[in-house]
Amino acid sequence: MPEECGCKEEKLPADEFSPEDWKKIDEVIEAHREKGLDDLLPVLHEVQKICGYLPASVQRRIAAGLDISPSTVYGVVTFYTLYYTKPQGKKCLRVCDSVTCYDRGSKELVAELENKLGIKPGETTKDGQLTLETVSCLGACDKAVVAMLDDETYYNLTAEQVSELVEEG
Ligand code: FES
């Protein structure tokens, strides 16, 4: 369903969320309403826990509730890599593509994953199991290439190893 512009804030909620979800979202917004923009980050965090991601319909609801512009909310959501505008897979594989990892083969590693999974970074497999992302330095450059599967970090990865990692799930 195409997203509509922010001027129709009172339209029915997007189909992907239940009335209960919207109620929870509104409760979060209400709890932070007084602080407005100052509480935008915690609101985004709490709402993403409810929804799994932050599509335009949810961003508009937050903007209206906190009395800030939709473009401000959008700017913050798209600035931070931990906020998502699309549904995420059950698991998330983040591959570092900063300088050291890139020099040691992260590009080839990502290409292997793209072939194997049939998705590009930023996308989720059709079965909804895995989201692939490239991220900036994970702080372990001496062990490049570095990747994270959810909260688990893997070091000195090769294309073959990451392929096995994905298979094991
Ligand atoms: S460049 Fe990859 S962990 Fe630092």
What features would you describe in this structure?
The protein is of the alpha+beta class. It folds into two domains: 61 residues; 78 residues, Glutaredoxin (3-Layer(aba) Sandwich), CATH 3.40.30. It is 44% helix and 11% strand. A four-stranded mixed β-sheet has the order 2-1-3-4, covered by helices on one side. The N terminus is likely disordered. The chain binds FE2/S2 (inorganic) cluster. FE2/S2 (inorganic) cluster (FES) binds next to helix 5.
Which secondary structure elements does this structure contain, and how are they paired or packed?
Layout: H1 19-32, H2 40-51, H3 56-66, H4 70-79, E1 91-96, H5 99-103, H6 106-117, E2 130-135, E3 147-149, E4 152-154, H7 159-168
Parallel strand pairs: 1-2
Antiparallel strand pairs: 1-3, 3-4
Helix pairs in contact: 1-2, 1-3, 3-4, 6-7
The protein binds FE2/S2 (inorganic) cluster (FES).
Can you tag this structure with a few keywords?
2 domains, four-stranded mixed β-sheet, Glutaredoxin, single chain, 7 helices, binds FE2/S2 (inorganic) cluster, disordered N terminus, alpha+beta, elongated, 169 residues
Q: Can you summarize this structure?
A:
The protein has 169 residues and is α+β, with helices and mostly antiparallel strands.
